Amino acid sequence: QQPVQSPQAVILREGEDAVINCSSSKALYSVHWYRQKHGEAPVFLMILLKGGEQKGHDKISASFNEKKQQSSLYLTASQLSYSGTYFCGTGNQGAQKLVFGQGTRLTINP
Amino acid sequence: DAMVIQNPRYQVTQFGKPVTLSCSQTLNHNVMYWYQQKSSQAPKLLFHYYDKDFNNEADTPDNFQSRRPNTSFCFLDIRSPGLGDAAMYLCATSRALRFSGRSWEKLFFGSGTQLSVL
């Protein structure tokens, strides 16, 4: 079942922060985050495997609330290079496959 | 560099004419996936191979078939392409432990094949 992302689109000025949410009606066992620029393949950002886990590099971080069956991606002090569509992908127990949310389009303006 | 390679980058076919897209990998990953992505939509999983085991998604049309002759190569066959099959087709690989129960490893994507149907 496809996870639900919100918001669908965000427009920011360079330097502003953004939060993208990903939720599922089914139990989550892992959450992946990818960024895709127009005409290119998705690029891996991070995986969260445990409830309560938080990860980050540079100014992009994420959290995973297993009980609430949701994950959030945080982008702080956004840069122009952060523009693109962000997808969360969720994995189900016992299934080696990833189903993506509908995506959140992030536009960063100078 | 180890990578996932898709050929061709752009493919044009005629309505109803069979077409094959190819994917190769040098990562020696045991799982290979085919995703279909239409404009402004999320990648949609069509099927995946876990080693030689083929796993079809319930809503993947019969028009789509796949072959994995060995670890390195995987093919997507569209038997009778329709206008609605025009999309970007993404191949991805991952390394997974059988019976691990979780998607531990990240997906490595190829650059995709943009399919046009005339």
- What would the principal axes of the Cα set say about the shape of chain A? globular
Strand content of chain A: over 45%
Largest sheet of chain B: 7 strands, mixed
Helix content of chain B: under 10%
Helical proportion of chain A? under 10%
Largest interface: A-B, 26 and 28 residues
Q: Give the total of beta strands of chain B.
A: 11
What's the gyration radius of chain B in Å? 14 Å
Class per helix and strand makeup of chain B: mainly beta
What is the chains' assembly state? heterodimer
Strand composition percent of chain B: over 45%
Q: What sequence of helices (H) and strands (E) makes up the elements of chain A? A: EEEEEEEEEEE
Q: Count the strands of chain A?
A: 11
Give the distance, in angstroms, between the N- and C-terminal Cα atoms of chain B: 36 Å
Query: From the alpha-carbon coordinates, what is the Rg of chain A to the nearest angstrom?
Result: 13 Å
SSE order of chain B, one letter for each helix or strand = EEEEEEEEEEE
How much is the average pLDDT of chain A? 88
Uncertain regions of chain B: pLDDT < 50 for 5+ in a row? none
Provide an overview of this structure:
The complex is a heterodimer of chains A (110) and B (118). By secondary structure, chain A is mainly β. Chain A is built from no helices and eleven strands. In chain A, strand 9 and strand 10 form a beta hairpin. In chain A, the strands form two sheets. In chain A, strands 2, 4, 5, 9, 10 and 11 form a six-stranded mixed beta sheet that branches. A five-stranded antiparallel beta sheet of chain A has the order 1-3-8-7-6, with no helix packed on it. Chain B is mostly beta strands and 118 residues long. In chain B, 0% of the residues lie in helices and 49% in strands. Chain B is built from no helices and eleven strands. Chain B has strands spanning 4-7, 10-13, 19-25, 31-37, 44-50, 53-56, 64-67, 73-78, 87-94, 108-109, 113-117. In chain B, the strands form two sheets. In chain B, strands 2, 4, 5, 6, 9, 10 and 11 form a seven-stranded mixed beta sheet that branches. Chain B has a four-stranded antiparallel beta sheet with strand order 1-3-8-7, with no helix packed on it. In chain B, strand 7 and strand 8 form a beta hairpin. Classes of the chains: A mainly beta (110), B mainly beta (118). Chain A binds chain B through residues 2, 29-30, 32, 34, 40-44, 47, 49, 87, 89, 91, 93-103, and chain B through 31, 33, 40-45, 48, 50, 55, 90, 94, 96, 99-112.
